[in-house]
Design brief:
single chain; mainly alpha; 6 helices; about 0% strand
């Protein structure tokens, strides 16, 4: 394996992850996942002593019969909002929404600038004619 193929492999992985992160569906999935984790953090009392969790969630007192003291302390549900995986989900959501905005909204803004600030379309009737030719039919008055 030479250096060029190694660089090409890294580049392929990089663009693969960019493609996933810029997808709005992935951002919505992350938001849903953060909501689930946050709801779990709301059910379990945060920042208590270890003895509190041993008294409240031990044995038959386990939350929903699943979350007992061992699982709560193992996955750090006792201080969920400060854990690395919750912080990672928040950073991943911010990165995903930023990439989604740049890849999807930036071209839309550039195209709208070309359309609305073009001297050829200063008259409202020219804009309506152009939109009708493109397949858009205006039912309401959008412009003043």
């Amino acid at each position: 394996m030479n250096l060029f193929s190694f660089q090409k492999t890294i580049s392929n992985y990089f663009f693969f992850w960019i493609k996933i992160l810029k997808d709005l569906r992935f951002a919505i999935f992350l938001l849903f996942l953060i909501g689930l984790v946050s709801s779990l953090g709301s059910l379990i009392e945060q920042d208590q002593d270890q003895s509190f969790y041993q008294n409240k969630y031990y044995g038959s007192k386990a939350l929903y019969g699943i979350l007992d003291t061992k699982i709560i302390l193992l996955f750090q549900f006792d201080h969920l909002y400060q854990t690395w995986y919750f912080q990672f989900l928040l950073i991943l959501l911010a990165l995903s929404l930023t990439l989604c905005s740049f890849y999807n909204q930036w071209p839309l803004i550039k195209n709208s600038k070309k359309f609305f600030f073009n001297p050829k379309f200063k008259n409202l009737n020219h804009k309506k004619d152009f939109l009708k030719k493109q397949g858009f039919f205006l039912k309401k008055k959008i412009f003043c």
